[in-house]
Fold this sequence. Notes:
The chain is α+β, with helices and mostly antiparallel strands. The chain folds into two domains: 2-118 and 260-271, Diaminopimelate Epimerase, Chain A, domain 1; 122-252, Diaminopimelate Epimerase, Chain A, domain 1. Helices cover 16% and strands 45% of the residues. The chain contains four helices and 18 strands. The protein has an 18-stranded mixed beta sheet that branches. The model has no long low-confidence stretch (mean pLDDT 95).
Amino acid sequence: MQKIEFTKMHGLGNDFVIIDKRSKNIDITEDIVKKLSDRRTGAGCDQVITISNSKNNVDADIKIYNPGGDSAEACGNGTRCIARILFDENKDKELLRIHSDAGILEAKKEGDNISVNMGYITMDWKKIPLSKDMDTMNIPISVDGYSKGVAVNIGNPHIIFFGKSIEKTNLNEIGPKIEKHKYFPNKTNVELVEVINKNTLKMRVWERGVGTTLACGSGACASVYAAWKKKLTNNKAEVILEKGSLLINIDNEKAIMTGPAEISYHGNLEIQE
């Protein structure tokens, strides 16, 4: 029996089990991730994230796991949660550098919120990646009234569809079909976006390897970038999600995301090895 200590956190309802490996090395197996993620018998979360002492000359290294045990390259809400832990440990710290599989992200305190520079966004079909060369502003997928999605990569792949009354769409039905579409060899995150005005979007998300979640930081960045490229919004916009909003600023092809990160509780779980 192995006892694993963790911190349960969330960013606008997108929730995480955070495991600190800096003082105690814990072997995180696929089975452990599955048991921690289970909402009936475990702690329950959208993703498991580990913090480790950095091997990359930054403040911390993180690893992100989906509930099935596979890893994800990037997570905006999760990065804000990690930054909240690190800022709480060092009140005088003004800037953090955090390394994930997507590269190094920088985080700053913005009042009660945390701002993360999510890095460059690309629409290069090879870097998303897509299975073949095509117009990434008009991906030829049509499902349930949505078509001509915008494909981008912001450390992980996304496809964004624009429409009206997005809350009426059965995302649990169309999400997995798009996620696993043949055009996306590494699968993709899926966003449904409704433009309210030049400064405001509403968004719903199907996360790759996870399913529907209440929020997605990288998805919010991808959505504003896509809307801006289509001249539907300004480069700075509020993204309304089910439990609150994120502020996204696209600056020189980089996305800066600002929003809350909350600690729910600290706990431990005994797992049969």
